[in-house]
Amino acid sequence: QSQVVKGTVSSSTDGEALPGVTVLLKGSTTGTVTDLDGNFSLNLKEDVSDPILVFSFIGYVSQEISVGSRSVLDVSLEEDVTALEEVVVVGYGVQQKKLVTGATGQVKGDKLTALSTTDALSAMQGQVAGVNISSTSGQPGEGLKINIRGVGTIHNTGPLYIVDGVQTGDISYLNNSDIASIDVLKDAASAAIYGSQAANGVVLITTKTGSAGKAQWTFDSYYGIQQPTRQISMLDAQEYATIMNEAAINSGNLPYFTQDSIAQMGAGTDWVDQMIYDNAVMQNYALGVSGGSEKSTYSMSAGYTGQEGIVGGPDVSDYERFSFRLNSEHKFWNDVVTVGQHLTFSYMKKNGISVGNQYNNSFRGAFGVSPFLPMYDDAGNYLNNTANAGVMYQGQEWQPWNPGENNPYASMMLNNQNDNRNQKALGDFYVQIEPVKGLKLRSRFAYDYYAEQRRSYRPVYDLSIYAFRTNDEATQNMSQGLALTLDNTLSYDMEFGDHSLTALVGTYMWVNKGLWMSTSNADLTVSDLEHAYINNATNTDLTRLNYQGAPNNDQKLQSYFGRLSYDFRDKYLLNATLRADGSSKFSEDNRWGYFPSVSAGWVLSKESFWDGIGNTVSFFKLRASWGQVGNQNIDDFQYLSPVVINKSNYYFGSAGYDASGNAVGAYVSRLSNNNIKWETSEQIDVGFDAYLIDGKMEINFDYYQKNTYDWLVDAPGFATEGADAPVINGGNVLNEGYELALSYNDRVGDDFNYWISAVGSYNQNEVTEVPTDDGIVHGLKNMLFDNSPEFYRRAESGYPIGYFWGQETLGVFQTEEEVLSHTSATESGTVVIQPDAKPGDLKFVDRNGDGIINDADKTMIGDPNPDFTFSLSLGFDYKGFDFSVLGYGVAGNQIVQSYRNHNAYANYTKATLGRWHGEGTSNSIPRVTQTNENLRIVSDYYIQDGDFFRINNLTLGYDFKNLIQTENIGKLRIYATVQNAFTFTKYDGMDPEIGYGVENGSSGIDLGFYPRARTYMLGLNMNF
Amino acid sequence: CSDFLDTEPITQLTDGNYYSSPEDMETALVGCYSGLQLLYSSGGVAVPVAAEVMSDNCFGGVAHSDGFNYQVIDEFSLDVSPGEVNIFDANWVAFYKVIYRTNVLLSKIDDIDWTGNEAQRNSIESQARFIRAYCYFDMARLWERVPLLTEPTTGYVPQSDAVDIYSQITEDLLFAAENGSETVTAGRITKWAAKAYLARVYLFYSGYYGETELPGNNGNVNAALALQGLEDVIASGSYDLVSDFKNLWPAASTMPNEAGDGLETTYAGKDNIETVFSIKYNITSIYGDSERDPDGNHWLVMLGLREQSFSPYGRGWGACTVLPSLYNAYADGDTRRDASIIAISQEGLDFDNSNQREYTGYTNKKYTPISNPDGSDPAVANGGTDFQIGQYQDYVAVRYADVLLMAAELGAATAQDYLDAVRTRAGLTSVPATENNIRRERRLEFAFEGIRYWDLLRYGIDEAANAVNVSMTVQNGGEDATKTISGDNLRATRGLQMIPQNQITRVDGKYDQNAGWQ
Asked: Hey, how many other C-beta atoms are within 10 angstroms of the C-beta on A412?
């Protein structure tokens, strides 16, 4: 009995046919080799009961396939990616990983897709050493804070994003399924080719492109349910009443409630619970196809992603994205001319509650309002907490306990009725001419277009004497902008003997223009969000009518750049770049800046002396680099003195009030400074890349020192100058650290593959100089709670950026004697430091020993910048099953937490039950009082350690392709994932990952943080 | 190709392309006026409010659970709250913002061609210089030695001596008194306002420093010249007394209508015949832009009844509780008592004082928000953003009654007539125009108008110290408590307030802190 088996062997990477693949009948000498089209035909003469064919080809993973009764066997071989042969994306080109001399990190698109996040940056967290990503809010669609190698500026720390060579400000418009890879340029030498915009690092995103061969279809989807991980518990009504009584007594007043009346109270309203929306949905569907011929390739996709918010639910907190992508490339005239394009169009709907500072934070309301306030009145309306307003509750007229408070849920639902729709189209058209091999002239025209429409509706409501609206309001905003890029590069690859050299020169022009308008008016004909359009507003009173419109200031860049890459036998490597940037941000005299870099590598494992070690360490490369890059991320026209014309009205009329009668005034609001220029970041980097144990283990290590100087600082001027101070250059911050990435993958037996990888980075941040007179860039006041003093310093010499500043405490006074014995020896004798303190009050450290507690005693009580960030991931696959787990954590940082504005009646967290209420009852939580004297002082009482380790992702999948043996399906994987599965932390807030800061340079501030959800999801990946 | 990078702001003017025409200068002048709103509405404590707290008219008050900044002002001591070292910081900043605006205008005014418009030029300069003098006079009284700048200046500027500051105030007011407009236009500074203000400056300076002339202008601004200015104001015929005292004040002249669905008022209105100079407000303030757009009277709400409204009285934050001694100082039949003071229980108000500090049973009626019968705020009901910033009652800095009483005090030939005119309006009979009688009259006439305290200081530190010295029972949060103010603290500080610590830190300690506040 003989059997003829025919088939085609192709590459799984690009679908291209593979010629020269050896096909061997296992356990015999019978075999053949595929032809130029990848076809083979093999006659299985021997009578083998269960014939198995072995397909092997250099550079590909060998595969054994049981023939069974089949006569046609199409096989796709997976590339054996010895990582060394991988290419990584660098500025204006690609480079073989083994030749890279800078510090870069790469994450492949499939790894991002596997994490099932709505945006790529979330999936990037913990993947690349030194890239620190934290959420500024758990609200869907909200931005992430990203810094690379520490905070280097008190301005925006976000990196420059380059998508397929086009610079843009935000990459949340991309579906993870569209991304082929993300490369991060961490050191200055790698980033310097992007010049004045690269000081915060550069993130290069490459979207998927097609390759010649059979069409490859992919379908990725997931559907999940989100739930809060843990909730803050506030005092319930009985506990609250008890604490209010105690505060009254401690403040020398009579208690409010009798024990009997407390005993009859229920639990009251749990406002945090009311705000949380359970089972919010998160879902994603992405369909793509790619393929092409030798002359023409394509890749296209359509995707939908939706995520509902867990605070307030989808009515007020929701994100949806529709994305479309088409990339193609075509070759003409014997491949001398290549023409191609990229285009991604995304439509995003995003509604959200306020997640800003304490005055713009819908969730914070849930923490302060007393549990006595009910949600609804007898008529089923949100209860109006106004005295004598005729509101009926449980059959009686409602009289407020605290007239100053109002229903925070109602406030959130009523005041966040928005409809935002953004569109973004980003892409390019390029032509490449290669007249002789190695010489490439490439020109590209690229665009980054956005259009944004925003509507909001505010109803009439009455929640309290402070929370009301007398007229409804509709607002319509629109804005749009277009950034155009024109760049040209000329590159030449040459080899002579053992030397190879690539030279690249280029020019770059970029212009960004836009405009916006906004109108709002009142008294709608039909009062709801659906009808909230200006044409439905009937009001003619000028005070309720608002209209504005203006162009954005033009932003322009013009640049010239060049790069030389040289290597000798892949052993000695050298790279040098220079970019000259001209920017419209600066005055004519200071427009141009020059950004040089040089980096070198030495592949020791290619030296003869390495032979002995080579068996263990097969590859070892030492790298070193130096470079300078810039940051010009400041507002426009900071070098000019603006005359403010519309913010200085005066009313000369005699009417009681007259909204339209103001005369317009003008004044100079800021002093000019013609000399400002960009911030410069200078960085050295030393590191190595190594492969051990037959390439199964990879180690990357880096040490860096990043010095960012000439910050653009709004240095406070002297008050006597009378106008805002000009932006000046000055200041210096040093980031120094180590990064280590380890990965190991291996196989046990034939079927069990496993991998483990660990990424860690250590960074120390220290400001070394501040140009202001007092050496401090101050933080804002009134931000931690009402009337709170300054509690963080944006920058001060000798301290990390954004450190927390306040009083140190030594616990709580237990007795009157302890108050009297807390003394300082001053020139005028021994002084009791806190003579007015009572037992139960916080005991402050008189750091300067002058016997008084004041600002001079304040010091660093916390640092929001983590010392360590680390991640650990591991996984395995076995006969179609796959399992992976990814953990991420930070250590060495602190969080400042304040959920409460300190009036007499604000609710407390349950932690307050552990307060001091008698000797020995607590040494950490002070007594409660009506006047909150312990809480009005910012001290380390507010600070907690922010260390955490979280299981970001747990996934178990099974590829049903193993069950249904069909040739048409390459993959049919169904998986279950838990995101944000467990968090190990001592932090007692809802979420320890708090990237939020009230202004640039500050972070780790928990004012009532919109927590990130835990998500349970099921997903499907199909290739066919 | 460098042109490619050229851009210019399209909707933003710059100092390079502005200040080039008389129209620009008029707009810049409006910017200076707008700064007057900034002085008292951009944070800190409004100086007229602080002056009442410092005087023997009012305690600090505010909420039982509030910070103690008003008490620090009231008691001339940090003892009550050592951390309150920056109470007037925002005021300090605001004063210099306004001074900068006037200095920019004055430094640019002669860059343009005024041929044929000289009177306009002089009127603009007069108004700008008056505003600058107004700022320096507030600052010199509050802190005494402040840096003096008469042109835009960058970098550190040392403190100036009082004599130099008053010299500049004198020069500025004299210029405005000579070159200002004679025509009274609502809201605008006239030469009459400058003459009246010069007399006020003269009286304060001569009293507080014991001099007979103001410095500046070769020392020829003496009592006679100050009096002559007041007589000019009177002779101009541009001003008169409003016939019924209560009609000067919205809350005193307004009440719910019979139907109970609105208010009816006999208020004489803004810019009535008695207004010589006022800082004007409107309902158009916007939150979030409050520093730059403080159109509203942001400080009025401080003075309202704590969190409760009793139409026509609106709610507020309960600052400046009134001493019973002031209420009792009014003679029977003096119509000014009930027009000036809300006597809470006598008026039958069911006021809950459990969140009030230093409750005395009395609060002021001249500067207090009003409220509709349904409890809504008239400013908000008419389009204001919020009752806290939308209040629209002007601050009348100089009234004609003050012109009369100052003239009487400076020894006018018709001093008796002037005093009688003021007393007659109040429903009182004549008393001799003696110094003591005029002083007593001033306290009753100008209570809560930010005048009393500066009068006390110019009568002498001891007089002021004795006047504010008090120890009495008040209620804090509804409980009895003793409120004590030691006159010695006023002596130790010479009645000045603390220079904001931030400002001293800002210049590396190069400013001297005032005595009693170190």
From this structure: 23
Q: How many domains does chain B have?
A: 2
Residue B25 near residue B109 (C-beta atoms within 8 A): yes
Q: Indicate if B187 and B259 belong to the same structural domain.
A: no
Block residue for tokens 């088409």? A326
Same domain, B125 and B230: yes
Question: What strands lie across the sheet with A39-44, from one edge to the other?
Answer: A39-44, A3-11, A75-77
User: Are the Cβ atoms of A719 and B101 closer than 8 angstroms?
Assistant: no
B259 touching chain A per CB within 8 A: no
The partner residue sitting opposite B149, judged by closest CB among A551, A650, A720, is A720
Number of domains in chain A: 3
Whether B70 has its CB under 8 Å from any CB of chain A: the answer is no
What are the residues facing A680 on neighbouring strands? A630, A709
Would the pLDDT of A525 be above 90?
yes
Exposed e or buried b for every residue in B272-303, given b needs 16+ CB within 10 A?
bebbbbbbbbbbbbbeeebebbbbbbbbbbbb
**In-domain check, residue B508:** no
Q: Domain span at residue B179?
A: 22-44+88-239+399-450
Q: What ipTM does the predicted assembly reach? A: 0.94
Partner-chain residue, chosen from B7, B289, B501, that has the shortest CB–CB distance to A647: B289
DSSP state of A780: P
A573-580: average pLDDT? 95
Helix (H) or strand (E) holding B399: strand B395-399
Contact check, Cβ <8 Å, A659/B283 = yes
| CA-based nearest residue to B397, from B445, B441, B449, B447 | B449
Q: Which contacts qualify for A834-838: CB closer than 8 Å, 24 or more apart?
A: A837/A813, A838/A250, A838/A813, A838/A927
**What is the residue-averaged pLDDT of chain A?**
91
Task: Write out pLDDT tens, residues B353-401.
Answer: 988 999 999 999 999 999 999 888 998 888 888 888 899 999 999 999 9
Whole-angstrom CA distances from B193 to B25, B229, B275 are: 21, 10, 9
Locate A892 and state its tokens: 């060495």
- Domain end residue (candidates: B346, B366, B393): B393
- Find all residues with CB under 8 Å of A49, minimum gap 6, and list them: none
Does position A2 have pLDDT exceeding 80, yes or no? Answer: no
Rg (CA), chain A: 32
Residue A323 CA to residue B305 CA, distance in Å, equals 57
Nearest CB partner across the interface for B270, out of A543, A588, A654: A654
Percent of chain A with pLDDT over 70: 99
Same domain? B109 vs B168: yes
Per DSSP, which regions of A193-333 are E strands?
202-207, 213-228, 280-292, 296-308, 318-332
Are B172 and B267 found together in one domain?
no
In a domain, A105, yes or no: no
Q: Which of chain A's residues have a Cβ under 8 Å away from the Cβ of B285?
A: none
pLDDT value, residue A80: 66
Q: What is the dihedral of CA B466, B471, B473, B474, to 10 degrees?
A: 60
| Burial classification of residue A709, based on how many CB atoms lie within 10 Å of its CB (0-12 exposed, 13-18 middle, 19 or more buried) | middle
Whole domain around residue A826: which residue ranges? Answer: 808-857
Residues B394-450 have pLDDT tens digits of 999 999 999 999 999 999 999 999 999 999 999 999 999 999 999 999 999 999 999
Q: Is the residue at B433 inside a domain?
A: yes
